[in-house]
Amino acid sequence: MIIHFNTTLTISYNLPKFCANATWNPVAITFATSAIVGTNPYGIFIDTNNTVYVADRANSRVQIWFNNSATPTSTISGGLNTPYNLFVSDNGDIYVDNGYANNRVDKWALNSNSSVPTMYNCGPCFSLFIDINNMLYCSLYNANKVIAKSLNTNLNIWNTVAGTGTAGATSTTLNLPCDIFVDNNLNLYVADTANNRIQKFGSGQINGTTVPTGTITLSHPTGIILDFDGYLFIVDQGNNRLIGSGPYGYRCIAACSGSYGSSSTQLWVSYSLRFDSYGNLFVSDLYNNRIQKFFLVTNGCNVTTSTTTMSSGTSMNSTQSVPLLTSTDGTSSTSVSFSTSLSYNLPKFSAYATWSSNGVTLFNTSTIGTNPYGLFVNTNNTLYVCEYSQNIIQVWLENSTIPIRNISGGLSSPYAMFVTVNGDVYVDNGNANSQVDKWAVNKTAGISVMTVKAACWGLFVDIYNNIYCSQYTIHQVVTKSLNSNSNMWIVAAGTDCQGSTSNTLYNPRGIFVDTDLNLYVADYNNNRIQLFLSNQLNAITVAGTGASSTITLSGPSGVVLDADGYLFITDTTNQRIIGSGPNGFRCLVGCSQAIGSASNQFHFPVTMVFDTYGNMLVTDDFNHRVQKFYLTTNIYSTTINQPSFCPSTTWYTNAITFANSSTAGTSVFGVFVSINNTVYVANQQTNKIVIWYEGSINPDKILSGSLSTPYDLFATPLGDIYVDNGANNGRVDKFSLNSNISTSVMSVPNICPGIFVDISNTLYCSAFTSHQVVKKWLNDNVLTSTIVAGTGTSGSTATTLNQPIGIFVDAKFNLYVADCLNYRIQMFPLGQLTGITLAGASAPGTITLNQPNGVTLDGNGYLFIADCYNHRIIGSGPYGFRCLFGCTGIGSSSSQFNQPVTLRFDSYGNLFVADRFNNRVQKFILASNSCSISYNQPTFCSNALWYSNASTFASSTTIGTLPYGIFINGINTVYVPNRISNTILSWPQGSSTSTSNSYSNLSNPYSLFMSMTGDIYIDNGYLYGRVDKYAFNTSNRVTVMNVNGSCYGLFLDINNNLYCSLKNLHQVVTLLLNNGTTIPITAAGNGSAGSLSNMLNSPQGIYVDSNLNLYIADSANNRIQFIQTGQLDGTTIIGNGSSGNITLNYPTGIVLDANGYLFIVDSYNHRIVASSYYGFRCIVGCSGGGSSASQLLFPQSMAFDSYGNMYVTDRNNSRVQQFTLQTNSNCSKLFSYNETL
């Protein structure tokens, strides 16, 4: 009788209890043939319910037999490739080796049809096992080791629990390990196949002991399992037999003939064995391509016969035997060494920090030897240098000429080192000694703290005292806690095998771990920087191959971070250092990428570190030196004012004269405004520089010197002034801050009508007569320059210039050139000699230029151009190019120019222009710069007045009869629908000539509205029952709203809700754009004409304020209705039903100013009325209906331009009238544009 009973521990596999005389039938039955399990089946598993699982390698699947079935009852596949083995957990989850091609173990949850990766490893797992602490083990046959990871976390971190990764026969090594088994005491048993032994590794131990097998000699054992009493059962593959042990030692229990074969009593290169709950043996018989079953036939004991089976279900939480210490509170009882102090430097840099391009050699072969590699600089600026050919670490105090310490003795080619806060030095000693050594302060010998398999090309100790080693030849980064006495480590990155996937590395070098324990790896042969987030084995590529919008890397060897987490990379085989910042990646030093030994060149730079000042130190390996590059600028993100303007920004078109010929001289050319709003003018008549501090009317300072006809000048944020002195002296001069004496800083061939200093302290000159732009770096002592644009010969190709004048260099070092006689603006990207035409000749969709002289950019990168021979200033924006000033032609009035040449912004957005042949500097005051609305909303004082006599802006010959709608956008382009021709007419600012814009299937448009992005919305309800949208500058129509009639008013609020007033339906409807429907909802009115609070009668003009309150010209009710956001009932704020001081007669239009005061088109009273602090008043058309300049006849709608001028569609006079703002003073909110500053 066989008695089954369960113990308190529960496991998923069978551990039968056998008597000493247990025997098995020598004649096996074939449980499965190759037709079912394929050829060479390896893995087999039997759970406590006697469900049988077999890994069918040949068909990349797992076959499953439930309930003693003779044929498979289930199959799992999909994503598997040649699975070697498997294990089933106590809850029915199936773990399957998928390492042959995919380098991982997959988990198939109970009853799931798909798998998820559980562990990443390098190569197939010839055996899998899950212990009672829920640790998953994998036997890596090809890597000669066993690895394990906890399944209690989602972290893809595993550690090596047996073997070193190198084949060997010592107590710490394995040679082609196959099957594994872990008992309840966490002892690991390994079938160490090529060593012909079974190794036992005590829990947490890396030294194994060989299990003695008595008189039995093993030959290539592959399979191993234990019974309940801990006796071993072994597949002795080389002897084609099964071995079992018991109280009387080892014996053959099946296939004992001593010869291989295919009979039922023989095996031929079998692999694994497993028990069912009855003690029957299942064996995978590889070369016979079958699974054999040997029945237990005798199991009688002198006591009550029993077979003990441990049932499934154990679930125990456990930490790893060697935990990686992290910042998670309460996760470990281990005493964690934690430091908020850092031993290395993390400088904080501005977005545009620059370093000297020429390095200073700190050490060469005479001081440090021929092969420096690793560098470390602590927070005291003590420098540590690894020299691997001499097996030495040298330590140098800041500015010292001799080392204060030499670390040597027992080292073998050290590549890297790391110094902790307490001064301990951790040194790579892995090349020949397979260890990392610690040299404590003042100690003369090192001690081993970590066993490694190869040299550590990078070392790092994080804030929790975990040490990391980058093993170049093993393609891995490994880590261990320095708070543990164990030499065991776990894998932090990489899978032991080279690869380019997210979990693999290919010859990793430099490493860096931030304070959040994120690991950065210079993945050398993958040409990328990998970021492994804390405790993750799948990386994100942050730079190089596979990373979008970064920079191309070639063999990166080093990586460090600054205080803001930006990357700095030693791009070794590109011979340069790369840095990142908020504007992306850029080259910092070695940017020629040419191999060389000059001070600005490298020959395979490998390691880079910062000192406390932000200076950069680099080991220049093949030049056998350590170079130091000084931080040169770390203050300013720009050297010139670049205000950010909105799409609808406007300036007053009448300028004030900032300086005339008495101060600026005749034929004024150069003007500059510094970032602190100091104004500089080059007076060519007196050969002096005239300076006004902010707010000054008269010059505060005049600089003289040996200048000759200076054309242009530039003042840096530090106060240094660079002045053209090329006409007779062939140079550019510098006046240092507060100095009255100039010095030469660059030799030039002739005049520089354009001068610029970029954020890297590089000076540029437009060499007018040489048709070139040249530059030089101001931190060196040479006067010669290099060419950055032009060939020296005039031409109009992409590589040539013709008399370049104004220049500008942006924060990304792109060069902009006013290419005067080519009538164009050219842009030369960093490092390129081929220009791109941005405006003027050959640039489609821009503007025609005539000898452009000046160019500058705003904060958004939009161009502003002094179009000299067109006597105007051009600006660009999201709506394209437009004339800003001087749009009426040559002249000397406040709105005109005579050859404007140079233009500069102050920090407020006001524009200064050198008006050359009017002998003056003009200042144009910013009028409006709103980024929230597309229309104009001026601020008016209570006493604001408009001239009563209007000018006719457009007549019936242009706009047709009975005009209704009008819209003026933020840049003062006027739009009017022509209902007769079914077109939309537009007038740019300052133009009296309209452009007729035709749109398909447009019928009788009453109203229109333009968005911030320039999209135009047009009423098309008369025949087609819709509102159409046309994207900016296109004729592509999209129906955005379906309506039942014409929209007499359209409005788009700040939340992208479109409103339409349906006069004939007595309603206002609204629709949120881009929400998947074109059907609007009711915003006001119930659809019936009436005067109740929820009713309207022939509504027309509408307006929505920034709080989403709706204002309606309720025409036939002779009132203005106010509908609060979210409400349908209105309140009368003026007109019938209100207590207002004015009577309305059929109001048709309404707008608000910036103070929220109302302006109303009081149509049947033929006037415009407005509210203010003192109530309502008539402002134009106050003498009754008529056709004179002061009269209106049934006006329909109105709009303001940015200057406060009023445009009215005078319907029955079939014209648009412009009423000019006359007075708007004594108002604190209002700007005044005609004052003298």
Automatic annotation (TrEMBL):
Q: Which organism is it from?
A: Adineta steineri
Q: Which PANTHER family match?
A: E3 UBIQUITIN-PROTEIN LIGASE NHLRC1-RELATED, PROTEIN LIN-41
In this chain the NHL repeats are located at: 174-204, 499-535, 1087-1126, 1186-1222
Protein name (database record): NHL repeat containing protein
- Name the domain of life: Eukaryota
Record-linked InterPro entries? 6-blade_b-propeller_TolB-like (IPR011042), NHL_repeat (IPR001258), TRIM-NHL_E3_ligases (IPR050952)
UniProt keyword terms in alphabetical order: Repeat
Q: Which PROSITE patterns has this protein been placed in?
A: NHL (PS51125)
Q: Which GO terms describe its biological process?
A: proteasome-mediated ubiquitin-dependent protein catabolic process; protein polyubiquitination
| GO molecular-function terms, A-Z | ubiquitin protein ligase activity; zinc ion binding
